[in-house]
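About this split. The held-out portion is used to measure sequence recovery: a designer receives only the structure tokens and must propose an amino acid at every position. Recovery is the fraction of positions where the proposal matches the reference. Here is one held-out target exactly as it appears in the evaluation file.
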């Protein structure tokens, strides 16, 4: 069979059909299971949005307490998982999460059950336990004991409780919940593709999600919001923004929080999170100055990037406001990518289910550009 033209980075290649989400980069539109991102984020909790992706319909209002209760029942970690987090306490949170993730099937009798029921049972465990893992790591690296999860709090509120040891302000819990829904799924992004490739071999959900965590951690995917905050701290004041940004670009570096492979207008998730960041600034839980600086830096960066790469449409992406929202709930930059994973795990699990149902091995080709006919010298 003749090899088709190589598409670098698989850009423009349609790898599968999905009912889970749609990204329209030209229109700046993101649809999650039929809902516009601006419609669902802030209205449905993460537990509801994840359930919607896993079963195909948003739970009715009466079902929600039962769904939340069931998921809350899976939050606690086994001692073996806690032991791994303890061993990894000095590793970056996303690495600790990847290591712990691989152990999250220890309490299921058949981790290789990839039937719809087996996948659903595993998805509930993964989504419920990711925040517990990150919170336990946050405590252990400070030399503190992990705090056991509480079943009477929502997933986001309970996470903040487990990190800080006290019930969070409702606005903080709402902001984190909105963030998790905002990033729950996003078409055929690199980590989702990774999960689907692994699932396509009929491998299990925990293996697929562990691989996805590894794909997410890179700075070109989920690792950008930490550097966004570093950039804002370094810029310090509005009047320094232009010179700082130009220097970065002249040095050949990318400005974190801008540009996207698919979106050529403002990322719609940035819209949602900009509103959340503003609410947090208004609730006075957050450094208002930082929020105002971010708005000013965004404006300057858009102008400078247009001058630097005319016509490339490098617009604000989700990571820019993620940095502000996560900072405002008290989290540290090196925890941001693990927070992203706590939201995206809902989508990864749904994609694994969809891939298992499609049951088609993903196996592209490569174009060989190496030498031929070499001979091994006599030894
Ligand atoms: N700062 C400076 N230049 C950028 C840029 C940025 N943030 N994003 C893209 N560019 C440049 C590229 O280097 C490229 O230049 P070239 O044509 O001279 O090689 C040009 O703009 C077009 O880039 P494009 O092909 O649209 O980007 P991509 O699809 O390869 O990469 C990202 C997309 C997200 C990896 C890229 O925009 C980036 O690195 N952004 C910063 C990191 C970030 O915020 N990541 C989170 C993504 S949600």
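Reference sequence for scoring:
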């Amino acid at each position: 069979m003749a090899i088709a033209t190589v598409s670098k980075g698989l850009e423009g290649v349609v790898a599968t059909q999905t009912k889970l989400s749609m990204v329209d980069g030209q229109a700046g539109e993101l649809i999650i299971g039929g809902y516009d991102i601006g419609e669902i984020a802030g209205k449905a909790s993460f537990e509801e949005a994840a359930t919607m992706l896993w079963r195909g319909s948003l739970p009715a209002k009466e079902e929600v307490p039962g769904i939340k209760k069931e998921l809350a029942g899976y939050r606690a970690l086994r001692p073996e998982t806690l032991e791994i987090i303890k061993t990894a306490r000095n590793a970056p949170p996303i690495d600790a999460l990847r290591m712990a993730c691989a152990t999250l099937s220890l309490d299921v009798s058949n981790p290789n059950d990839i039937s719809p029921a087996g996948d659903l049972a595993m998805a509930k465990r993964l989504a419920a336990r990711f925040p517990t893992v990150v919170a336990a790591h946050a405590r252990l690296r400070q030399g503190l004991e992990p705090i056991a999860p509480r079943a009477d709090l929502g997933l986001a509120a309970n996470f903040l409780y487990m990190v800080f040891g006290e019930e969070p302000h409702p606005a903080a819990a709402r902001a984190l919940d909105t963030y998790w829904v905002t990033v729950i799924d996003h078409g055929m992004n690199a980590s989702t593709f990774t999960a689907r490739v692994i699932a396509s071999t009929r491998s299990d959900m925990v293996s697929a999600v562990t691989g996805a965590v590894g794909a997410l951690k890179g700075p070109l995917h989920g690792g950008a919001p930490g550097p966004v905050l570093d950039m804002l701290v370094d810029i310090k004041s509005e009047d320094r923004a232009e010179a700082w940004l130009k220097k970065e670009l002249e040095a050949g570096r990318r400005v974190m929080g801008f540009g996207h492979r698919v979106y050529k207008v403002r990322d719609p998730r940035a819209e949602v999170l900009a509103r959340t960041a503003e609410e947090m600034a208004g609730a006075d839980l957050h450094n208002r100055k930082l929020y105002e600086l971010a708005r000013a830096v965004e404006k300057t960066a858009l102008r400078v990037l247009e001058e630097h790469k005319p016509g490339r449409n490098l617009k604000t992406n989700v990571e820019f406001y993620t940095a502000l929202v996560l900072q405002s709930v008290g989290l540290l930059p090196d925890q941001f990518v693990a927070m992203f994973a706590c939201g995206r795990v809902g989508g990864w699990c749904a994609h694994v289910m969809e891939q298992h149902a499609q049951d088609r091995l993903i196996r592209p080709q490569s174009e060989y550009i190496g030498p031929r006919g070499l001979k091994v010298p006599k030894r």
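Annotator remark: The beta strands are 21-24, 29-32, 35-36.
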